[in-house]
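Notebook p. 47: complex prediction with zinc ion.
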Amino acid sequence: MQFNHDNMTGVYLAADIVNLRARTDWSLDALEAVLRHHDIRRPELSPAAVIALRRWAVRLRAVFAAPDVETRCHAINGLLVDGAAGVYLTTHNGLRPHLHFTPDEDDVVGRIMSVTSGSLAIFTVEAEGNRLGACGRSGCLRVFVDTSRNGRRAYCSTRCSNADAVDRHRRRARHSTRHPAPAE
Ligand SMILES: [Zn+2]
Ligand SMILES: [Zn+2]
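Predicted complex, structure tokens below:
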């Protein structure tokens, strides 16, 4: 499945912000590094901006972890109300018409809220409500964007997928020693 690249920045940015929060090193510096990685302009953050984005990350996580399409759409609609109320079409720099979700002069928190909510909405249209997920390994709080061919991804990483397979194997082994097969 091919996704419109223009709109993917906010989707990957959303996943990275949520995953930063899943680790213990959520900090101003770590968050700014994520924003720079995604070429967010003027990424300098104040402590208040960090707090605002931490709250936003909780709401972003609900989009990835939604149990069904309806819940996901509802969660994204909530983000759009607060993040992308200023959506408009533009042809700046001679480009073909495309959507901007907020004026460029908006502060960094406003721009992140708008690009993540707008991109998640467009991605959800293109992916028919699927292809966003939370890792299936218990204890892992990471989320992922599933651009695989079959769209059946269940884990944030191969590492979690392998670890979960080992855990399941151990649980089965323990279960069968506790309940040995009856002797003939
Ligand atoms: Zn543009
Ligand atoms: Zn994981």
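Notes: Residues 90, 92, 98, 100 surround zinc ion (ligand 1) (CB under 6 Å). Residues 5-178 form a domain with the Jann2411-like fold fold (CATH 1.10.3300.10).
Next step: compare against the earlier run before touching the bench.
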